[in-house]
Amino acid sequence: MEQVRHGCATTTHAIRAPIQRSQGTTAALSRELGINVKTVAKWRKRETVEDRKTGPTDPSSTVLSTGEEAMIVSFRRHTLLPLDDCLYVLQPTIPHPLTGEGSQITPPAPHPTRPAPRSVRPAGRSSDTQP
């Protein structure tokens, strides 16, 4: 089975294993393999050739409480609705707004250094004014 790697990856298992076994200098290996010296140093320190998992070790919602999250998951499993439809139905029951600027209840205050907008007047004289 072929290894799947992300777009920025410069090494595969086939390159990482020889890096870990090699006795040559880090600089020489990086020149030989055409990769960064830091990449060679990183894979020499690691005990395996597997990528590490990224992200939090214990992911949790920063917006919903555990009970609210359980209610939403249970609702979605029972109704089999798409996520957007679940959000539309359940949004009134969630006591606080969800993340994002679009969910603000009141618009942000105007910037203190911006001048107030001026009304636009047509150039020249108006036809209803007398000289």
Mind explaining what this structure looks like?
The longest helix is centred in the middle third of the chain and has 14 residues, at 66-79. The model has no long low-confidence stretch (mean pLDDT 76). The chain is flat and about 80 Å long. Among the domains are: 13-45; 66-95, no CATH class. With 131 residues, it is mainly α. The protein contains five helices and no strands. It has helices at 13-21, 26-33, 37-45, 66-79, 83-90.
Key phrases:
131 residues, mainly alpha, flat
- Could you describe the largest sheet, including whether it forms a barrel? none
Q: Give the radius of gyration.
A: 30 Å
* Helix and strand element order: HHHHH
Give the amount of beta strand, in percent. under 5%
Averaged pLDDT, please?
76
Query: What's the overall geometry?
Result: flat
Distance between the termini: 89 Å
Helix content: 25-40%
Name the structural class: mainly alpha
- For the secondary structure, the number of strands is 0
Q: Which spans have pLDDT < 50 for at least 5 consecutive residues?
A: none
Helical segment tally?
Answer: 5
Outline the secondary-structure elements.
Blueprint: H1 13-21, H2 26-33, H3 37-45, H4 66-79, H5 83-90
Helix pairs in contact: 1-3, 2-3
Task: Give a nutshell description of this structure.
The chain is mainly alpha-helical. The chain has helices spanning 13-21, 26-33, 37-45, 66-79, 83-90. Among the domains are: 13-45; 66-95, no CATH class.
